[in-house]
Amino acid sequence: MEKTSRVSGFFKKTPEERLEFVKSFSELTDEEASAIMGEGATLADLDRMVENVIGWIEVPLGVALNFLINGKDYIIPMAIEEPSVIAAASNAARMAREGGGFRTCSSEPLMIGQIQIVDLRDPFSARFEILRERDRIIELANKEDPILVSLGGGAKDLKVRVVEGERGANLVVHLLVDCRDAMGANAVNTMA
């Protein structure tokens, strides 16, 4: 049988039957499935709070169905107390599924560290000097986070431009940093 998140009448199943489906779909162990239930509430109470409930994690834990993302079926866990959100997400995913589901793409995980230099007598010469030292600046920046560099990230490029402002020309330097899967703000600030 083909694995699909398109489950007609899922909301009619008991919470125990839903959890069993999620366990099978997600290939959870008995221990993982029992951890979903949590403590402090009954499934009967939770089932009246949100749609498709399967457990409890301080708030009811339900699942949104029908998600086809990049050609692969997903069931999406949602911990929420607000009624109708899970049903609305499942319904929207069902409608999107009819058109082929959701397609995703991503850009490189680049962040920009910006340095602004003001009150320069000759910002164009300063720009030239910074660009001439581009490779050395990138190398110095990467020494600040060797772990990020070892994971394939780090400072990758340097952009420098002269910007005219109310007080004359300023120099704006952008250090482009590949943050990989990190949020990146601390790494970028340290490198810049």
Automatic annotation (TrEMBL):
Give one GO term, molecular function aspect.
Answer: hydroxymethylglutaryl-CoA reductase (NADPH) activity
Q: Name one Pfam family in it.
A: HMG-CoA_red
Look up the domain of life of the source: Archaea
Record-linked SUPFAM superfamilies: NAD-binding domain of HMG-CoA reductase (SSF55035), Substrate-binding domain of HMG-CoA reductase (SSF56542)
Q: Name one GO biological process term.
A: coenzyme A metabolic process
Which portions of this protein are annotated as coiled-coil regions?
none
Query: What keywords does the record list, in alphabetical order?
Result: Oxidoreductase
State the similarity comment: Belongs to the HMG-CoA reductase family.
Protein's name in the database:
3-hydroxy-3-methylglutaryl-CoA reductase
State the organism named in the record.
Answer: Candidatus Syntropharchaeum butanivorans
